[in-house]
Amino acid sequence: MKTKFLSLFLLSIIFFNIVLGENVIVIITDGMNFDCLSIVRKISQNPLKNISFDNFSQIFYCETTADNTYITDSAAAGTAIFTGCKTENGFIGIDKNKKNVENIIEFCKKKSFLTGVITNTRVTHATPASTYSHVDERNKEYDIALQLSEKDIDLVMGGGLKYFLKENRYDKKDLLEEFTKKGYKVIKEKKGLKENTDKKVIALFSNSHLSYEFEKDTTEQPTLTEMVDYGLNYLYERSKKMNKEFFLMIESGRIDHASHYTAFKELIFELLETEKMVKRVLDFASKTNTTVLLVSDHATANPVFVGTFTDSLLHTMDSYFIKNVDTSSKENLLKTLDSFKIKFTDISEFSGTKEESSYKGDHTGSDVLGFFYSKKFRIEKIFYKNYELFEIMKKSLMDNL
Ligand SMILES: [Zn+2]
Question: What is the CATH number of the domain that holds 224?
Answer without folding.
Answer: 3.40.720.10
